[in-house]
Design goal:
By secondary structure, the protein is of the alpha/beta class. The chain is 23% helix and 19% strand. It has a single domain, classed as TIM Barrel (Alpha-Beta Barrel), CATH 3.20.20. The chain is globular.
Length: 207
């Protein structure tokens, strides 16, 4: 089923189980943008984040993949590309605080969030060097940011998982929105140190 009962997810054998004990089918949509130089999910100049998310849910999605970069988490980082008339509760919010609002609303409407460390500096697609770190944002910064997010969202039932750092993605043709269904295949090989930070709050902390 695509409806997920309130609470954290866990696993049973090869299945993902919700808080009611029912097996769930995760149907995800990617909402890109915060990993780029806008430092916010795309489309917030056209509509509110709530309306975007309500639309995603109405189309049958129950998981949102939110890409982020280490640059997005720089202290005091402010987003651009937001119509604050349509998103008045985002006025004065940092990029991370915009994520807070999206995650809180996901919890209210019964959706889950996958936090995708997509790249180090801001930009499109994966790191140009093919790695999960750069000279500006070394692996230690990536690990620090993952730990920070794990602590920040540990009590948020909506946050279910992080992903690998660098991904190859195949977009559906004709995607007309700023969020689209994708097929994602991990192509990075994080070190054991960074791998250990990936469990975060996912699936009852990977138990």
């Amino acid at each position: 089923m695509t409806t997920i009962a309130p609470g954290f997810l866990t696993t049973r054998g090869g299945q993902i189980i919700d808080n009611s004990g029912a097996a769930v089918k995760l149907t995800g949509v990617n909402w890109f943008g915060a990993e780029g130089d806008a430092f916010a999910p795309q489309g917030l100049w056209t509509d509110s984040y709530q309306n975007h998310m309500d639309k995603m849910k109405s189309l049958g999605f129950n998981v949102i993949r939110l890409p982020w970069s280490d640059a997005m988490l720089d202290a005091g980082r402010m987003p651009t590309g937001i119509d604050y008339g349509k998103n008045p509760d985002l006025v004065g919010k940092t990029s991370l605080e915009v994520f807070d609002k999206i995650i809180d609303y996901a919890g209210k409407i019964g959706m889950k969030i996958i936090l995708d460390h997509h790249r180090s500096g801001d930009g499109a697609s994966a790191n140009e060097n093919g790695l999960w770190y750069t000279s500006q944002y070394p692996e230690s910064k990536m690990i620090e940011n993952r730990k920070m997010l794990a602590t920040r969202y540990a009590s948020k039932e909506a946050v279910m998982a992080p992903t690998c750092t660098t991904n190859r993605t195949t977009r559906p043709r004709g995607a007309a929105t700023c969020w689209a269904r994708r097929t994602t295949t991990s192509s990075s090989r994080p070190t054991r140190r960074s791998w250990s930070t990936r469990c975060m709050t996912t699936v009852r902390r990977c138990t």
